[in-house]
Amino acid sequence: MSSTNPSTPVLQLDGVCVTFYPGTPNARTALDNFNLSLHNGEFTVVIGSNGAGKSTMLNVISGAVAPDRGKVFLEGKDVTQMPVHKRAAYIGRVFQDPMLGTAPALSIEENLALASRRGLRRGFSLALNGDNRRRFSDILKPFGLGLDTRMGAQAGRLSGGQRQVLALLMASMRKPRLLLLDEHTAALDPGTAELVMQATRRIIEEDELSALMITHNMQQAVDVGNRLLALNAGRIHLDLDSQAKAGLTVDDLIQRFGTLSDRQLLHA
Amino acid sequence: MDTLQLFWNLVPVTLVQGLIYALVALAIMIPFRVLSVPDLSSEGVFPLGACVAVALIAAGWNPVLATVAAMLAGFLAGMATALIHLKFKVHSLLAGILTVTMLWSVNLRVLGKPNAPLFGFDTIYDWVSDQILANITMQIVFFAVLAVVILLFLWWLLQTDLGLGLRGIGANPHLAPALGVGLVAYTTGGLGLASSISGLAGALMAQLQGYADVGMGVGMLVNGLASVIIGEAITGRSSLFRQIAAPIVGAVVYYQLSSLALALGLNPSDLKLVTGVFVLVTIGWPYLVGRKVSGTGL
Q: What is the pLDDT of residues B93-113, one digit of tens each?
C-alpha cells in the first residue's frame, strides 16, 4: 500500500449495524450503530461477553459479513462492497481454530509461499525457490520449534500450537495494514498460548503493526496492547487509551466493566 | 490360450485408448483432488469436444484450430459448472450433472445430428504425419508424448503462485480468500482448465475414429473415476508429481484390465458392474483390512 496521510485512520467503522435473522423470533442485533476509528500503531485489545459483537465486528472488517447499514473504511478507502479476497490486501487474520489458519495438505514452506503473495498478483513464477526458502527458514528459526528444519512437512502433521504459530506468521509476514486476531490463543494449552502471545507481541512491536485482538483472557487484556475496547450488546462500552490502560489490573477491569462471563472469571 | 492371444493382440489399440482416456481421468482428478470441488461433467464435455471439432472441420476449418476451439468449448463448460456451483450455491456434483444434462442438447445442436463422420477431411493427425492413422506404434508414441507433455505442464503450473492458489483452495477454502485467493476466479479457472482437457480428449478421439457421436461420453465417468482410483493405488499421493501421474497410469492400466476381463469371457454388459465393484474394493481395501485411514474418504 502506498503511503497515506498518517492521520487517516487505518480502520474506520461508521454506523455499522448487523442483525442476524431479522424479522424472526431469533433476531439478534450483533452490532448496533457501531463506530470505531483505529489509528496507525494502535494495538487494540477487545473484550466482551459472548454475543457482545466482537467476532461480528472482525467479520465486518474482513468482509466475511456484510453490514445491514453503515460503512467500513480501510486507510480512508470505502471497502464496504469489497469482497474478502480483495480486502485481504490490507488485512492479515488469525482464526481461533488452529485448523483454519493453515492449509493442512500443503507443506510448511508452501503455506508460507501462499501467504507471501497476500495482496500481490499471483502469476506464473514458481512459488518456491532458493531465495524465498531461505527467507522462510529465517522467519521460522527464532521460534525454536524446529519448524525451519522440516519445511517440507505437511502442515496438517503439526500440533495445534505449531499450526497457530505458522498461522500467525502467515498472517503477519507481509506487514498487513491491520492484523485481526480472533481469540487466537484460546484453543491452546497455557504454555503454548504464552509462546504464541509472546510471538504476537514481538511481531506487532517489530513491524509496528496496527492490530485488533479479541480475547476472553483478562490477564492478556491487561498485559498486552495500547488500547482497550470493551463491547457489550453490539456497542462500545469502554474505550481506554494507552494512558488509561497502563497500570490496570484484572480486578480493576472486572469492576469497571461489570458484566462477566464464566470464561472471563476462569481466566481472571 | 486363445483368450490371452486375443488380449495380447489388442494391447496396442487398448494402449492408445487408455492414453486418450487418461486425459479425461486428469480432467476428473484436477477438480477432485486439487480444488476439492468434484466435477463429474466429463460425460458431457468429452462429446462436446468431439462435436465441436467435427462440426468445425466439416465446415472447412483447419483441424488444429478446430481442436483448439474444442478445448475452448470445454473451458466454457467448466466455467459454467463452476459458476452454477458458486453463484447458485449448488453442490458441485449436482452442478456437474446439470452441465452434462444441458450439454446433451448443446452437443446435438453443435453437430446438427446424433452422429457425423469425417470422411475426406484433414484431421490433426494428417498434420502430424501421413502414416500415423494406419500405424499403431506411431499413435502410441504420439499419445504417450502428449500425455507426458500435459503431465509436465500441470506439474509446473501447480507449482507456480497461481497453481499454489488453486491447491490452497482445495486444502483450505476458508483460508484461501483471507490470503487474497478469490474463490470465484480460481475455481472457475481450475474447472475450466480441467474441462478443456476433456474437450481436447474428445476432439482427438473423434478425429482418430473418424466420427463424432453425441453419445460418445456415456459411461466414461465411471471409467475415469476407476482410472483415478487405480492410478492413486499404484503411484500413491505422496508428492504432487505422483498425484498428477496417477490418472494417466491408472487409465492405461484400467483399460488393459477391462480388455483382459472381456477376453477372459466377461459379458460386456457386466463390465460396468465389475468396474464399480473394483473401484469400491480399491477404495475400501484399507478399511477392510482394518488399517487406520486418516482424513476424509473418497
A: 999 999 999 999 999 999 999
Contact B171 A105 (CB under 8 A): yes
At A42-88, the pLDDT tens digits run: 999 999 888 788 999 999 999 999 999 999 999 999 999 999 999 99
B183 and chain A in contact, CB less than 8 A: yes
Pick from A86, A88, A127: CB nearest B164: A127
Any domain includes B257: yes
Partner-chain residue, chosen from A62, A103, A122, that has the shortest CB–CB distance to B161: A122
* pLDDT surpasses 90 at B276: no
Interatomic CA distance for residues A102 and B60, integer angstroms: 52
Chain B residue nearest residue A84, CA to CA: B177
Tell me whether residues A128 and B178 touch, CB distance under 8 A. Answer: no
Domain at B14, CATH number: 1.10.3470
Name the percent of chain B lying above pLDDT 90.
Answer: 76
Which three three-digit cell numbers place residue A129? 525457490
Sign of CA dihedral A142, A146, A152, A158: negative
Measured in degrees and rounded to the nearest 5, phi and psi for residue B63 equal: -60, -30
Is the separation of the CB atoms in B283 and B297 below 8 Å? Answer: yes
Q: Chain B residues with CB inside 8 Å of A171's CB? A: 178
How many Cβ contacts (< 8 angstroms) between chains A and B? Answer: 88
> Residue A66 and residue A238: Cα distance in Å, rounded?
25
Residue B291 lies in a domain: no
| Predicted structure pTM score | 0.91
Asked whether residue A137 is assigned to any structural domain, the reply reads: yes
**Interface contact B179-A120, CB threshold 8 A:** no
B272 within a domain of the structure (yes/no): yes
- Total structural domains in chain B? 1
CA nearest B186 in A: which residue?
A122
Q: What's the CATH code of the domain at A159?
A: 3.40.50.300
Question: Which strands, in side-by-side order, build the sheet including A235-240?
Answer: A91-94, A178-182, A211-214, A43-48, A227-232, A235-240
Q: Complex ipTM, two decimals?
A: 0.89
